[in-house]
């Protein structure tokens, strides 16, 4: 009886091996695949495997970043780059220039968890061809306001500066580009729109939100203001605040279809203080502004999403009940942390509109889990970044 010779992975064509390797993260390519043999070492550095680079699986320290910059892995063939730095990392233009100066076709850049020595130094090396920029949980010692006005990102359509507490209105305007934004996330930027330390009244802050966004990104479709409106209201301010002020946002941004107002303690306090009839009218005014009747408006939206997160159930119910009477054929989805806390507060006699849904943020996030490629083959404590000559060791 004759036995066929043993076939190993090395016998597979390079094209098949590259397809297998494409399911691995860049960490795995460097720390595992490169160690097998010289053939795999070369294949792990194929440009097609480095067109979308995700280094967010674990914190990246600056020494590893410098070694990575010396390898011909990230360059004109790279279209997206995501890096999560170690909390003690201090970024400067000198640190990032070797990594980004050849990325002439970079469309998406994400940088998370680091300290910026100077915001202007960072943005000076950011490729102008970017479509999407995410600067999340970055701390900045010297923002450099005057120089920042020279930043030019003309193709930017998505901007995420969540949890960058140093961001104020002038910095945001400088980053917005030339009115091309469709997605803006300013979660946790509580200094924006006349917040701390100026602490304008809610009416004034809402007017500033509408004026600034309508002027610089009138085509917004997704807006996150989570943890922005967090200052407490006194009794006098509550009495002088117009109940329908929330509707001014979709009135200014007519393309808006997704709004995140979670952790907005100022708005929660306002709606909690209103009689139910006024609260329903305020919520209805918001829905009519963001879901206009197609017979009187040319802007038709198939779906509108409102994220309320941990808002009190009685406040969430105001928006759910007000949405039942919408005459537009727009599908409405209200996201909260726990749907089970909302159901007991809904009136059983309320007519059910099949276009109105209440969903849980937790179940939604589970559906958006990344593919297994984002997980490493080896535990973090065992990872060493090897190179044939020890560059990444």
Short structural summary:
It is built from 15 helices and twelve strands. The protein is of the alpha/beta class and 393 residues long. The protein is globular.
Structural topology:
Layout: H1 14-21, H2 26-31, H3 38-43, E1 52-60, H4 62-70, E2 80-85, E3 90-91, H5 93-100, E4 108-116, H6 119-124, E5 132-140, H7 145-148, E6 158-160, H8 169-175, E7 183-185, H9 202-216, E8 222-224, H10 235-240, H11 248-252, E9 258-260, H12 265-273, H13 276-290, E10 303-309, H14 313-323, E11 331-336, E12 356-360, H15 361-367
Parallel strand pairs: 1-2, 2-4, 3-4, 4-5, 5-6, 6-7, 7-8, 8-9, 9-10, 10-11, 11-12
What do you see in this structure?
- By secondary structure, the protein is an alpha/beta fold.
- It has a domain at 182-354: Leucine-rich repeat, LRR (right-handed beta-alpha superhelix) (Alpha-Beta Horseshoe), CATH 3.80.10.
- Helix content is 31%, strand content 17%.
- It has helices at 14-21, 26-31, 38-43, 62-70, 93-100, 119-124, 145-148, 169-175, 202-216, 235-240, 248-252, 265-273, 276-290, 313-323, 361-367, and strands at 52-60, 80-85, 90-91, 108-116, 132-140, 158-160, 183-185, 222-224, 258-260, 303-309, 331-336, 356-360.
- Strands 1, 2, 3, 4, 5, 6, 7, 8, 9, 10, 11 and 12 form a twelve-stranded parallel β-sheet that branches.
- Strand 4, helix 6 (119-124) and strand 5 form a beta-alpha-beta unit.
- Helix 13 packs across helix 14 (313-323).
- The longest helix is centred in the middle third of the chain and has 15 residues, at 202-216.
- It is globular, with a radius of gyration of 25 Å.
- It starts with 13 loop residues before the first helix and ends in a 26-residue tail after the last helix.
- The relative contact order is 0.09.
